[in-house]
Amino acid sequence: MTEITDINKLPDAIQSFVLHWGDLGGTWGVNRTVAQIQALLYITETPLNAEDIQTQLGVARSNVSNSLKELLALKLVRRVPIPGDRRDHFVAETDVWQVAKHIAAARKAREIDPALETLTNCLAAAAGDNLVTDEQIRRLQDMHDFTAKMDRWYMQMSSLPTSTLSQLVSMGDAIVKVLKLGRAKE
């Protein structure tokens, strides 16, 4: 494989993927560089060290180091030894289902868990507060119930083997059709 010296020397399709994945990172709660490094490692067929990543993406070494720590914690990349080279080299998880599961787990921990805890605390506080109306309590309860349901759904889905999860997702259209039978439009 030819060494690439910066992002502008990546093939257009690969450059577009890395840059777009970086933009998507913000919607997943990670910064652009973290997502770009994950994309670069995902698409690169050989392990890269931090210097390679820094050169190819044109980002500061400290940013690469911090981003790799975050990606390791998210289990989206791992270290691999290279014989004769003492530097750390990294590869990305390439099973897209595992990538999705790791991203979902991080988002659940960052978004769903705190929301559920906050809603539980709000309901407890509202129960003893005469200034909180019954309608406000109902709305908090609805949000709590929805969030708890999503939490349970996540736990069920995350425990499924990838093959079963893939089949379930593939059945989406069929499930929607079955569920719509005999139901009025909502």
How would you characterize this protein structure?
The protein folds into 2 domains: 7-92, Winged helix-like DNA-binding domain superfamily/Winged helix DNA-binding domain (Arc Repressor Mutant, subunit A); 96-180. Helix content is 66%, strand content 9%. The protein has helices at 12-25, 32-43, 50-57, 61-73, 96-127, 134-158, 162-170, 172-180; strands at 48-49, 77-82, 85-92. With 186 residues, the protein is mainly α. It is elongated. It starts with 11 loop residues before the first helix and ends in a 6-residue tail after the last helix. Helix 5 runs antiparallel to helix 6. A hairpin with a 2-residue loop joins strand 2 (77-82) and strand 3 (85-92). It has a 3-stranded antiparallel beta sheet. Residues 1-5 have low confidence and may be disordered.
Mean pLDDT: 90
Integer-rounded radius of gyration: 22 Å
C-alpha geometry: elongated
Overall structural domain count: 2
Beta-strand segment tally: 3
Task: Decide which structural class fits the backbone.
Answer: mainly alpha
Question: What's this model, at a glance?
Answer:
This protein is mainly alpha-helical. It contains 8 helices and 3 strands, in the order ααβααββαααα. Helix 1 runs antiparallel to helix 2 (32-43) and helix 3 crosses helix 4.
List the SSEs and their pairings.
Blueprint: H1 12-25, H2 32-43, E1 48-49, H3 50-57, H4 61-73, E2 77-82, E3 85-92, H5 96-127, H6 134-158, H7 162-170, H8 172-180
Antiparallel strand pairs: 1-3, 2-3
